[in-house]
């Protein structure tokens, strides 16, 4: 199994991948919608959401590094 994470835009309820060339012809997936707080940049919002997810999953830096290495190795 492989995973692809892509940046998307939602336009009037339609999901459009910014890098559609990386998408397979057919697939299923998960979508996380992140709403930035007032005055917060979308980049800061994404980082905050990732940190909250990391806390929720109880993933420390060592576990995160292991996961990154595993994903990197699987893409070779």
Description:
With 76 residues, this protein is an alpha+beta fold. Helix content is 38%, strand content 11%. The chain contains two helices and two strands; from the N terminus they run ββαα. It has helices at 42-56, 61-74; strands spanning 8-11, 14-17. Strands 1-2 form a two-stranded antiparallel ribbon. A hairpin with a 2-residue loop joins strand 1 (8-11) and strand 2 (14-17). The protein is flat, with a radius of gyration of 15 Å.
What's the SSE blueprint?
Elements: E1 8-11, E2 14-17, H1 42-56, H2 61-74
Antiparallel strand pairs: 1-2
Write down the secondary-structure element order.
EEHH
Biggest sheet details? 2 strands, antiparallel
Rg, Cα atoms, Å: 15 Å
| Helix-strand makeup class | alpha+beta
The low-confidence parts are none
Residue-averaged pLDDT, rounded? 77
Alpha-carbon distance between the two ends: 13 Å
Number of strands: 2
Helical fraction: 25-40%
Summarize the structure.
The protein has 76 residues and is of the alpha+beta class. The protein has helices at residues 42-56, 61-74, and strands spanning 8-11, 14-17. A two-stranded antiparallel sheet has the order 1-2.
Structural descriptors:
38% helix, 76 residues, two-stranded antiparallel sheet, alpha+beta
């Amino acid at each position: 199994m492989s995973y692809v994470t892509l940046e998307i835009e939602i336009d009037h309820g339609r999901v459009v991948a910014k890098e559609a060339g990386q998408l397979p012809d057919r697939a299923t997936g998960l979508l996380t919608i992140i709403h930035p707080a007032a005055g917060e940049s979308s980049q800061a919002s994404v980082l905050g959401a990732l940190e909250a997810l990391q806390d929720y999953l109880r993933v420390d830096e060592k576990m995160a590094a292991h996961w990154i290495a595993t994903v990197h190795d699987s893409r070779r």
